[in-house]
Amino acid sequence: MTGTSLKTYALTRLALVVPMVLILLTFVFLLMRVAPGNPIAAALGGHVPPSVIQRISHRLGYDKPIYTQYGDYLWGVLHGNLGRTITDRRAVSSIIVENGGATLELTVAASFVAMVVGLVVGLLAGRFRDTWIDVSGRLFGIVAYAMPVFFLGFLAQLLFGIWLGWLPTSNQASPITQAFLPVHSHILFIDAIWAHNWGALWDVVKHLILPATTLGIVIGGVFIRLVRINVIRSLKDDYVEAARARGIRERSVVYRYAFRNALVPVVTVVGLQLALLLGGAILTEETFNWPGIGSTLVSYLAERDYAGVQGIVVVFALVVVVASLLIDFVNAFIDPRIRY
Amino acid sequence: MAVASRTAPGRRFVGRRLRRLWSPIAHTQGLARVMLLSGASITLFFIVLAFFARWIAPYGFTQYAAHGVRFPQLGHPGGVHPFGTTVESDDVLSRVIWGAQTELKVVVLALVLSLAVGVPLGLFSGYFGGALDRGLVLLMDAMFAFPPLLLAIVIAFELGSTVSSGVVTAAVAITIAYVPQYFRVVRNHVISVREETYVEAARALGARPMTIIRKYVFFNVVQNVPVLATLNAADAILTLAGLGFLGYGVQPTQAAEWGYDVQRGLSDATNGIWWTGLFPGMAIVVLVTGITLLGEGLNETTNPVLRRRRFGRFDFEPVSPMFAEVEPPLQPDEGLGE
What we know:
The complex is a heterodimer.
Chain A: H1 6-33, H2 39-44, H3 50-60, H4 66-78, H5 92-127, H6 132-146, H7 149-163, H8 175-180, H9 188-194, H10 198-236, H11 238-245, H12 250-272, H13 274-287, H14 293-302, H15 306-334
Helix pairs in contact in A: 1-15, 5-6, 5-10, 5-13, 6-10, 7-10, 7-13, 9-10, 10-12, 10-13, 11-12, 13-14, 14-15
Chain B: H1 2-26, H2 30-51, H3 53-56, E1 65-66, E2 69-70, H4 92-128, H5 130-144, H6 148-160, H7 166-194, H8 197-204, H9 209-222, H10 225-246, H11 258-269, H12 275-302
Antiparallel strand pairs in B: 1-2
């Protein structure tokens, strides 16, 4: 479409995020409030006298009418306040800062692993279509996808942690590192580099290897498929034919023309798999006792802390929304055909 | 007589449709055929296990003694317990076999529910368009922002205290997580089918919307459903296992569930005990691989991009992350631009 500039597109796309976020917030709020029973009673457990429940409900504003609570909640979110947990009165924003670092470290490392696995296996499988390389590459992809991340984690812990004893199987770093490393970013990997503490960095990396590889391989299973199909498609494309017709060597046709174009859509898809990555991160963190947002969520679920669950679920959804927004911007920037 | 002559073309109509669905499968060759057959046999194997668990499994899923003798705790695989025993002295082999039944129940229930909700919503929303369509698309897109597992966890957490059956809880949780996918695929397909000449012709002849949807649109869209359902079944098993691993959905006293068993196995692994986690985990991997091979085989025979021979018109919309080639960015409305 002609006439729409990148700026108009960006603004339209941005405006569309507003109702989306509103729906998200409402959805999660309702989900957490339709449950029978008082959230305070749920969090405190069974043996608390009603008067206590009433007093705490009043202090935290849970005795107000539901629409007032909803209004307060939206007003709070608008001001960057995602609420506080009931059980330990932690601000959701501080959970994001303190535990988000661990989740970020895990997911970034896992994406890196997934990208390497997906690109190498996918490119080879697509290039050598219908050979044994293709068959084994695809089978690897299917089995990796079929593997629950916690089961792969179980196998990895058993092999590398228990039997071979090479790598630690739980936590983000050893207690000594965690106690003495000065906190800057809450991302231990960066904090260790910041402090020029190479011993600590090695310790952090050792703890990161198993969880990141586990999650990365499972996500990589999806990428293999995507890369392979894209390579097959672009090898059939006209410009590849044209390059061949001009007598360019097959090797250079494949590597310089087909692969490069096959990778453009993959970049987008990698970003769009974020929901899969975050879902996998919850399970990975639980498997490896990784102190990220996912395992925090699981512990709030176990404590029946509705406010904690609500806050973290909203954060997960917002991350996905913002990420897909950014991906769309990047795409529109690269490809002028994507406009409204 | 009049009735017979009215039903005969109808039956022939359905038969022709079925043959059209079947013919690409019968004509598969090479890898696609291998994938289809191996996937189908693995899936069938687990279905048999599920149906006949009562007779195949040597013991019950929470049985810790037989003939007055208690089974060993964490007994090594071998002898009467080929897969060993757990901390609670349960027979691992029996739990794996009973687990197949749990998976089948939940997945079938979840598939039926999400088809029953997602397909009609997608059909009507796509066909009629308008404000309802825009609202639904926005809602479903918003639900898309949640990782399916996360949504399932929250729903199972909510229902856990009110619904007593773990199978129903898990199935509903999975349904809510997957309805947006069915909705999106069916709706987008309906939108392209709606503009086809034969639909326009039917409309011009004065057919009512319900008739058009039932006779023309539905059959075109429904061709995707087998592939879609297969793929989602594989996904649903992974989600169910994830729920079980975190302790939601099916409760351990109600049924055997593989994901829960792997979670228990994980704590045994610290002491070098591998059999409590390995066998239920392998069951998940083999079953999901089987179903995915089946789905991929079906996809390959029906997807015009991947297929080398053509068998008539057939558009496939990628759904599951496994099968999405390129997901389009979120579009506000189909009619607004390129």
